Amino acid sequence: MRSMWQGYISFGLVTIPVKMYAATEHKALQFHYLHEKCRTRLNYERFCPKCEVVVPWEETVRGYEYEKGKYVVLRDEDFELIPLKTTKTIDIVDFVDLAEIDPIYFDKAYYLEPEEAGVKAYNLLREAMFESQKIALAKVVIREKEHLVALRVFKDVILMSTMFYPDEILSTEKLAIPHKTKAEHRELAMALELIKKLTEKFHPEKYTDEYRRELLEIIKAKIKGQEVKLPAKEKIEIEELMKALHESIELAKKEKEKQKVSVPRSHSHHA
Predict the structure, then answer these.
(1) Which of 7, 95, 164, 217 could lock 88 by a disulfide, CB 3.0 to 4.6 Å apart?
(2) CATH of the domain at 122
(3) Rounded distance, CA 42 to CA 162, Å?
(4) Is the per-residue pLDDT at 130 higher than 90?
(5) CA neighbours within 13 Å on the CB side: how many for 245?
């Protein structure tokens, strides 16, 4: 793997040199726009509408729009002027319980690998977080933004998750959300029973991208020149609440029975 960033974890007066790697990747299929007539992939060029020319990369700069149509240009050296410790350091500021943080705050995940000189300190921080069952909140500048990040132990690796700041979480005020009302006792009891029937241990390998799998089958068929038939659309009906809950519970029971049958029984061996 190729590292995306190099810097340090700052833990009190302890400094740990690390490299950062992507921890996740999207598996969505990638499509390109083609010229329908000749099936050639289209090029996208940096066209300046004022000068009516295609602009080469060496003539491009970054600009911040401070008024409509007015920009101030920022060059690489301007970003170097920012006197923050976090430009090269993951600066730990607090330790908290993971359960205190709502998942809405988490964005992207990265693995942190220690440089040779930081192995001992990396091991110490990893073990201390594991023993205390705490995660670290820190700040670091990556790609011209100071990120709030969380550090925690994941499969013996210190994992860094970038986080949204509170002002980046959009308000729910404009949503047409119903006011909290007391649910009917029978409906609530059945809803709780349904949740109980559908409750499982989390096994990530159980969940797969069915849409991607079906789309790949269509692509394979089209490559072979086979006709792909449109499936019949499933009609979605909004059933009466109690009826829907009752039928859902029955379906969940049947699904559990199927799973019991499909799991082979383990045979005990006596010495």
Answers:
(1) 7
(2) 2.40.290.10
(3) 34
(4) yes
(5) 15
What is the tally of structural domains in the chain?
Answer: 2
pTM higher than the cut 0.90? no
Q: Within 10 Å of residue 122's Cβ, how many Cβ atoms?
A: 22
Q: Is the pLDDT of residue 258 over 80?
A: no
Residue 58, domain member (yes or no): no
Q: CA-based diameter of the chain, in Å?
A: 86
Tell me how crowded residue 191 is: count the other CB atoms within 10 A of its CB. Answer: 15
Mean residue pLDDT of the chain comes to: 87
Residue 18 near residue 114 (C-beta atoms within 8 A): yes
Closest Cα to residue 197, out of 250, 264, 259, 258? Answer: 250
193 and 157 Cβ atoms separated by less than 8 Å:
no
| Same domain? 143 vs 9 | yes
pLDDT at residue 271, as a whole number: 34
Phi, psi at 173, each rounded to 5°? -60, -35
Structure tokens at 11: 């833990």
Same-domain pairing of 21 and 151: yes
Alpha carbons 188 and 155: distance in angstroms, whole number: 39
Q: Six-digit token pair at 152?
A: 């925690």
Q: Tokens standing for 41?
A: 């992939």
Contact between 16 and 9 (Cβ < 8 Å): yes
- For residue 59, the 8-state DSSP code is G
Question: Which of these, 121, 224, 241, 252, lies nearest to 187 by C-alpha position?
Answer: 241
The dihedral through the CA atoms of 38, 44, 49, 52 has a sign that is: negative
Is the same domain home to 118 and 195? no
Task: Report if residue 145 sits inside a domain.
Answer: yes
pLDDT at 47 over 70: yes
The predicted model gives 237-259 an average pLDDT of 74
* Beta bridge mates, 15: 10
